[in-house]
Amino acid sequence: MRDLAVRLAALDAEAGAALQVIAYFDGLVEGRAGLQSIVRGAAVLAGCPARLDDDARRVHIRMLPDGIAAPLPGPADESWPGQPVGTAMLRLERVGPPGPVDAMVLERAAGAAGSVLDRTRGRAPATDPAAVELVVDASAPADVRLHAARRLGLPVDGTAYAVALGSGESRLAAAGTPPPTTRAGIGPAVPLLDLPESHQAARTALRFAAEGTDEDPGETLVHFEELGGLAVLALVPDPAGVPDVRALEHAANAAPWVLTTLHAVASTISMRAAATVLRLHHSTLQDRVEHAEHWLGWSVREPQGRLRLQLALALRRLHRHPS
């Protein structure tokens, strides 16, 4: 196969590259390579980071184009080219549609990863909402809750954390397990009998998690422990009634770019950094901010104004995601 790929490459470079991709992953399958080797191959051949995410099986692997494993920087971008692998998704971290070679890399790597998942992980463990509900029910007897925790595969002598998903589902995971890649709130890792508190914290954190859209820009994954004093905002009975939130809604209705622009200004260290995030020229951002300040009624370029903006954005999100 390799000789054929070399000869074909001399006639048609793209066809030769595709054949080399096929030969590469066939070799990995034949050698019963593991998931990390497969994702590494995808990253190296595509020349960009590649990642395999399977929330159901709690499998998350990310490799850099130099073949080095790297931690997940955050949830995957849905616009990245990807290939489903059962409950998992293999993605190349690059913008734009995949070229012919990238498409071949995704297809062959996904096929190889699927065979490994079926061989080593079997079917994804069924979610047991009843067991989760029992573990986080502080009124249930301790021995019953620990028995339910064991059924979920949690380490009885270790720590675990609760996850509140945007879908309304709750999950529990052993400490050190990567968080999901979808919109979620994460509670602190605690001993198993303290998981009711972690679950409540996760539900609070979920209210601060954005949808990641133009209507609701921001982080989609929020850890309760990182909220600090902001967590008390969740106690505000009517966030929409706060005057600054009303002003923010007024500005949001004035132009479609307002919320993403103000979020970038509030979450970066400078106007120039915000312009980079938004991929705007600095002068264009200045024009937008001047308009937004007019609609808001205060400056967002001073420290106090940025703080007002951050609080207004957080309160608006709490209003969009009530408890």
Automatic annotation (TrEMBL):
It comes from the Bacteria. This is PucR-like helix-turn-helix protein. InterPro entries: CdaR-like_regulators, PucR_C-HTH_dom, PucR_C-HTH_sf. Residues 259-314 form the PucR C-terminal helix-turn-helix domain. Gene3D superfamilies: PucR C-terminal helix-turn-helix domain.
